[in-house]
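request received
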Amino acid sequence: MNNERLKSVTLGLVILVGISGAALLARWTDTLRPPVDPNLIDESLYLNDKTARRMSLGFNGLAADWYWMRSLQYVGKKFLQFEGNISLDELGAMNMKLLAPLLETATTLDPEFIEPYEYAAVILPGVDVQHAIRLTQKGIDANPNAWRLYHQLGYIYWRQGQYELASETYARGAQIPGAPVWMEAMRAKLLSDGGGRATAREIYTRMYEQAGEEQVREMARRHLMRLDSLDQRDSLRKLFAAYKARAGKCPDSWRELEPVFRALRIQVDQSGGPLDPSGAPYVLKPGACEVELDWQHTKVPLK
Amino acid sequence: MDEQLRTLDAAPAITHSRKSESVGYVSLWRISAIARNAFREAVRDRVLYNLVLFVLMLTAASIFIGELSGGQERKVIVDLGLSAMLLFGMFIAIFVGVGLVYKEIERRTIYAVFSKPVGRGEFLIGKYLGLCFTLLVNVVVMGLGVSLALMYVSRGWDPLIPTIWPAVLLIYMQLMLLTAVALLFSSFSSPALSALLTFLVFVIGHFSADLKVLAASLGSTSARWVFTGLYYLLPNLANYSFITPAAHGRTPPAGFVFATAAYGLVYITVILAAATLIFSRRNFK
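response:
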């Protein structure tokens, strides 16, 4: 091996060993770094939305995408940090101070970007409902023909129990050319049965169908699962009442109702217990004619 | 450069006494010879290597962005692709543009060029067109890259593909304008200062609408005149930013594209005229 070749091989080895050594040192440093209080690291954004818009030059669309992805990752990270089962629309306990400014900045940078408004309408009410309304209204002002945003604003009002306002919002959205017929139907339904289960089912079904963001679809799916479970539990209570009328007592185990379940083609597990929409068996309260979810195994949300 | 001189030697002979000072009329042949060589030089300087980086970036984005963007990968690809096109193009326009004249002076090849029947204006316009052609190749290849990335994420034809091309055209016009500005500064200043000044023009060009608002809000008449003057003096580059609407599937109206093209053409003509005026006063004897 001549000198030149030896030099090249040595330098190549130095590079390889050096990179591996740097990677190992980085890992070691990570283990030594003191843990950071998650409440301290996300206090505020460096730039407010208007400054970010001015500084973006011709790259405002890309900057909006970056803020949008940061919002998604911010929520995702909070979910990972949170110990416990929580729904996407009940995030008040998670200290999401940055979510509103992130979504605000994304929509100021690109006012036609519909997804951040929709995401804000679903998630922000759990953190700051007035900000959620303001942001969705901002989306409507910037995109007056986006009927989906009226649907989202109506949803926020509906969640707040403001059925008349929700109905008015759906009515305004229904007048937009291209808006689906169900927007008009929602208007009437909210007025007649604002807090009812049928209205909730209609809203979440439409949300599931229209949502572009997977987390929002998942949230709507879980709510639909909860509504199905409520209906199922009502049906089971009717069965208990019929059983009690016939046997003179409430059932002590699911086995006593097995013939009925078989006749009604209700899916059961090995113990004979009927399954909830997430596939976990319901729990029977012996002798009480009452049924509840198996909180340890079910994926049906509490509320 | 030798190639450039050989091409110029082959140009139709011109009979006049002071060949290097003034050539009497503008020759498209000589301009195209200089432009071709400027393009070849850019290719030899590996300017188009940025396309490799662009393709790698876009490929990575197409594969991974779906996970991160919450189903908005098509919008992100258009934003990312067109923004990268503008950014890379801006760097080429600035850093190659400011060196177009300076390198010739530093290598002293400019003396050989001007010993031929080549006018100062022809030299500048030729250099300018050469870099514009380099940028054209760049944006067309990048535009095709964005279209392919969209086809990849949509698993076939994507309705956003035809809407990005008007935005690509506007980006190209913006880069042509910026190249002219870089050439103007490089005709009398050092490369570092020229690059800085051109970058500042790019930044201020995107703020020019604010200059107008500022002028309207000022109480002092003289200050209002100054800012209004600046608004009309500096290029309004915000007119050429159509990336975000393109990502939403919107195309600029034909009248708007025509007006911005006309504005750009007039502006480039003015800048190149000013650059020629300054450059022809420089002494290369």
